[in-house]
Amino acid sequence: MAKKELVRLQKMMADCGVASRRKSEDLIRQGSVKVNGRVAVIGDKVDPVNDKVFVKGKRIKGTAMPKKRYIMLHKPRGYVTTMSDEMGRKCVAELVSDIEERVYPVGRLDRDSEGMLLMTNDGEFANTVTHPKKDIYKVYRVTVRPSISDEQVTQMMMGMTIDGYKTKPCEVRIITRQEGRVVLEILLHEGRNRQIRKMCEQLGLEVARLKRTAIGTVKLGMLKTGDWRDLTQKEIDKLVANPNPSSHSI
């Protein structure tokens, strides 16, 4: 008799497009996952073909693994980075409803921000791209009001203490400076919640617009707001194998 091939429960969930591995682990801890009628715990392994796995009462099956999809979405402002929202707000799921596979966001981009958002049904890829050890930088185009001094730029670049945490040094470049507004390009090596907005708020700056234009060497380019496209194999390989080349500039 052939030996059953068991995989970690969170891996199966990620592979089936439920959520990333870390989000899947959260669901397990919350008691939202059952295996063969038993509430699952972290560390459980399952047979994707024969075990009955339910997430929030809905069965997921590993018999026919879906095609791996890697999507770049140009998220508009006003959309939350979730697949559903209890408050009835617009969510990014509406923008990818024509994709046959069930993809989910890789990382986050707050409701008031726009720009590049990666989505996938590949849990391994999502975990790689979001893992802090990978240190995948992200580039943002930020419009602030009313102006910004050289001293404030230096403060941002050197790192600031926000919510009791010292941010990592970042790169800041002034793109344009006009009366009452300045456009910056900011390269971050970390992705703390609303980091740029909190940095600007601490400096007394109003963020009028915040747009993510690149993740690692993969750029948003001319993709229209609200549209999506598949990542090329070259882009996928860059993110997984060599996300941060030794030299880069914004």
UniProtKB/TrEMBL annotation:
List the coiled-coil residues: none
Recorded hits in InterPro entries, A to Z, give: PsdUridine_s_RsuA/RluB/E/F_cat, PsdUridine_synth_cat_dom_sf, PsdUridine_synth_RsuA/RluA, PsdUridine_synth_RsuA/RluB/E/F, RsuA_PseudoU_synthase, S4_RNA-bd, S4_RNA-bd_sf, TruA/RsuA/RluB/E/F_N
Provide the RNA-binding S4 domain boundaries: 7-66
Instruction: Specify whether Isomerase is a keyword of the entry.
Output: yes
Return the PROSITE patterns for the record. Answer: S4
Taxonomically, the superkingdom here is Bacteria
| Molecular function GO terms recorded | RNA binding; rRNA pseudouridine synthase activity
Q: Which Pfam families match?
A: PseudoU_synth_2, S4
The record's keywords, sorted A to Z, are: Isomerase, RNA-binding
Q: Name any Gene Ontology BP term.
A: enzyme-directed rRNA pseudouridine synthesis
CDD domains of this UniProt entry? PseudoU_synth_RsuA_like (cd02870), S4 (cd00165)
Q: Which family does it belong to?
A: Belongs to the pseudouridine synthase RsuA family.
Quote the protein name from its UniProt record: rRNA pseudouridine synthase
